[in-house]
Design a protein that fits this description.
The protein contains five helices and two strands; from the N terminus they run ααααββα. With about 180 residues, it is mainly α. It has a two-stranded antiparallel sheet. It binds protoporphyrin IX containing FE (2 copies). One protoporphyrin IX containing FE binds next to helix 2, helix 4 and helix 5.
Length: about 180
C-alpha cells in the first residue's frame, strides 16, 4: 500500500456510519410521507371513508417512525457523529446542532402524541392492516384533546425546522460545496 493511501485510511471518516445513513433516509421517507398524509387529512371532512383509510396509513407510518427512532437514538448516542470535513464557524456549528437536536425531539414527540391521541380516544391503532398496536391507555377524552393539540403544534414546528434542515443541506451542497450532503450519502 502506498504511503498516501495509508495516510488516507488513517484519517477519520467524515461520513456517518452505514447504519446511521440507512436509518436517516428510511426515516426521512417515513416521516415526510406521514407529514404529507397528515396535512392532507386535516383538510378532509372527519368520518369520511377516504380520511379514515388515509389516517390508517398515517398511523402505520407514524408507529414505524416510533420503532425506528427507538433504534436510531441509542445508535446516535453510542456512535456519535463523524468529524467535519471543514471546520465551520461557531454559529453554523451551533445552528446545525440545535436543528438536529430539535429534529430528534420532534421525531420522538410526534409519534408519541399521535399514539396518545388515538389510544386515549379509543380509536384503532393499525399497522398496515397486519395487526393492531396494543392500546395502553384508558378512554380519556380530555387527554385525547391535549395530545391532539401537541400533535398539531408539533407538526407546525416540524414543517419549519425540517424546511430549514433541507434548505441548509441544499445550500451546503450547491453554494458552499463543502461535502456536508455527502456525509449522509
Ligand atoms: C413522525 C410521526 C408523525 C407525524 C410527522 C405526524 C404528522 C401529522 C400531521 C401533520 C397531522 C395533521 C395536523 C393535525 O391535525 O394534527 C396529523 C394528524 C393526525 N395524526 Fe399524526 N403524525 C405522526 C404520527 C402519528 C401516529 C403514530 C399516530 C397514531 C398512532 C398519529 C395520529 C394522527 C391522527 C389521529 C391525526 C388526526 C388528528 C385530528 O384531526 O384531530 N400520528 N399527524
Ligand atoms: C430531503 C430531505 C433531507 C435531506 C436532504 C437531509 C440531509 C441531511 C444531511 C446532509 C445531514 C448531515 C448533516 C451534518 O453532517 O451536519 C443530515 C442529518 C440529519 N438529518 Fe436530515 N435530511 C433530510 C431529511 C430529514 C428528515 C425528514 C429528518 C427527520 C425529521 C432528518 C433528521 C436529521 C437529523 C436528526 C440529522 C443529524 C444526524 C445525527 O447527527 O444523528 N433529516 N440530514
Amino acid at each position: 500500500m502506498s504511503t498516501v493511501t495509508e495516510a488516507a485510511s488513517d484519517m477519520p471518516s467524515s461520513r456517518y456510519r452505514p447504519s446511521q445513513r440507512v436509518l436517516h433516509w428510511l426515516m426521512a421517507i417515513v416521516i415526510i410521507s406521514a407529514l404529507a398524509i397528515g396535512l392532507y387529512c386535516s383538510y378532509l371532512e372527519p368520518g369520511t371513508p377516504l380520511r379514515r383509510a388515509l389516517l390508517d396509513v398515517h398511523k402505520s407510518l407514524g408507529m414505524t417512525a416510533l420503532v425506528l427512532i427507538a433504534i436510531r437514538l441509542p445508535l446516535r448516542l453510542s456512535l456519535g457523529e463523524p468529524a467535519n470535513r471543514q471546520p465551520f464557524g461557531a454559529l453554523v456549528h451551533y445552528a446545525a446542532r440545535c436543528t438536529h437536536m430539535l429534529l430528534y425531539v420532534l421525531m420522538i414527540l410526534m409519534p408519541l402524541a399521535g399514539y396518545v391521541t388515538s389510544a386515549a380516544g379509543g380509536h384503532d391503532l393499525p399497522w398496515f392492516g397486519l395487526f393492531q398496536w396494543p392500546d395502553l391507555l384508558p378512554l380519556d377524552k380530555p387527554l385525547e384533546k391535549v395530545a391532539a393539540r401537541i400533535h398539531e403544534y408539533g407538526a407546525y414546528c416540524l414543517y419549519a425546522i425540517l424546511s430549514l434542515h433541507v434548505l441548509a443541506a441544499l445550500w451546503h451542497h450547491f453554494f458552499r460545496r463543502d461535502g456536508v450532503l455527502a456525509r449522509m450519502l
